[in-house]
């Protein structure tokens, strides 16, 4: 049985997520922008938090943790990148790329997705088809390169792009409308982008979350994953360039968008 997934809007444009196993009663939180929405959701569902999963060290993903821990009767396990332990909150369960661990009675695979930061990880739950990608792969976008090189981020995105089509990309921010407008400047004739844009506009107008999205949809419409696409390469005047160089060019354009 798949885990139950809850998307929690936090701060101005962040997302945290809860996953819950009905079989064991375990509940994991992914990222902690702030404590309030998490505590409200746990109370509303009657769930007990057993695990906290941290994607990366940025304040808008971890700073809610002290308030959350202070409000919980039992301390959850805290999972995060061993390589980044020096700048993450204290970890009970440090992990590294390729580790296969059990969280909420399911296998979770740890994927190093450095680029936005070095030491950024994603948590992939193959059985439930969730990938918690933080600020690496996002809906129609990817995180800015604060610490890693374009080549590093490109390798990270390629790892995520290799997951199954139906994987739900649970990313850390509601940046989709702006990402979509940028995608339209590069890839206006892409029929999948035209279709998705009309859906995104309706979702945003209704004040609903555009996250999570499926990996299949990202492959078809996310300009960063489409750095391999011949027509996008040609539109950039980079028909013969390698994929990482095309990714770097798209990221540079987005930085100025
Ligand atoms: Zn970040
Ligand atoms: Fe962030």
Summarize the structure.
With 257 residues, the protein is α/β, with parallel strands linked by helices. The protein is built from nine helices and 14 strands.
Protein topology:
Elements: E1 4-10, E2 14-20, E3 27-30, H1 36-45, E4 51-53, H2 59-62, H3 65-71, E5 77-81, E6 93-95, E7 100-103, E8 106-112, E9 121-125, E10 130-134, E11 137-138, E12 141-142, H4 150-161, E13 168-171, H5 176-187, H6 191-205, E14 213-214, H7 215-221, H8 230-235, H9 243-256
Helix pairs in contact: 4-9, 5-6
The chain binds zinc ion and fe (iii) ion.
The amount of beta strand, in percent, is 15-25%
Distance between the termini: 43 Å
Per CATH, the architecture of the largest domain is 4-Layer Sandwich
Mean pLDDT figure: 97
- The total tally of domains equals 2
Biggest β-sheet: strands ordered side by side in the sheet: 1-2-3-4-5-6
User: Helicity, in percent?
Assistant: 25-40%
Q: Show unreliable segments.
A: none
The tally of beta strands, per DSSP, is: 14
Characterization of the model:
The chain is an alpha/beta fold and 257 residues long. It folds into two domains: 4-171, Metallo-beta-lactamase, Chain A, CATH 3.60.15.10; 176-255, no CATH class. The protein is 34% helix and 23% strand. It contains nine helices and 14 strands. It has a six-stranded mixed beta sheet, with helices on one face. A six-stranded mixed beta sheet has the order 7-8-9-10-13-14. Strands 11-12 form a two-stranded antiparallel sheet. β1 (4-10) and β2 form a beta hairpin. α4 (150-161) crosses α9 (243-256) and α5 (176-187) packs antiparallel against α6. The mean pLDDT is 97. The structure holds zinc ion and fe (iii) ion. Zinc ion binds next to loops. Residues 56, 58, 116, 135, 143 line the site of zinc ion (ZN).
